[in-house]
Amino acid sequence: MSSRQWRIAVGADEAGFQYKEAIARDLAEDSRVGSVVDFGVAEGETTPYASVGLTVAEAVARGEVDRAILICGTGIGMAISANKVPGVRATTVSDSYSCERSVLSNDCQIISFGQRVVGLELARRLASEWLGYEFDPASPSNSKVSVISAYERRTP
């Protein structure tokens, strides 16, 4: 379990706006979170999920934030978009075990939810659980994650 203060980004398209707002409020009140950066969207605004996912993932890759939570209709588009940014690992989560393993086995810095797929209370709970996990570079999973990182470094 982690004891650090996370810098967390949140982002959503219009299909994930309500969850983003609720989760951002939860994060702001969580003692494990040092700051929350909201990358939008604003209420009534429409933005392609890919634009939000890429922008947030770039902030993670640059080290401006430690981790991020993305929300769209299914969570899939956000995860796909974020994974296009070198150095970023993102996944959708819908249960406690995949949430845990996303960090402990895969060193994912970004999780995504589908507002049309996962209930709000479950998404809020998973976001809270996720804050407690930190990847251990000494774990056996590090060699597996390193394969991904090495591939990213060799491709244009």
TrEMBL record:
Catalytic reactions on record: D-erythrulose 4-phosphate = D-erythrose 4-phosphate
Protein name (database record): D-erythrulose 4-phosphate isomerase
Gene3D superfamilies tied to this protein: Sugar-phosphate isomerase, RpiB/LacA/LacB
Sorted UniProt keywords: Isomerase
Pathway: Carbohydrate metabolism; erythritol degradation; Carbohydrate metabolism; D-threitol degradation
One Gene Ontology term of the molecular function aspect: intramolecular oxidoreductase activity, interconverting aldoses and ketoses
Documented EC number(s): 5.3.1.34
Sequence similarity: Belongs to the LacAB/RpiB family.
Provenance organism: Stackebrandtia nassauensis (strain DSM 44728 / CIP 108903 / NRRL B-16338 / NBRC 102104 / LLR-40K-21)
Keyword presence, Isomerase: yes
Taxonomic lineage from the root: Bacteria, Bacillati, Actinomycetota, Actinomycetes, Glycomycetales
A single BP term in Gene Ontology: carbohydrate catabolic process
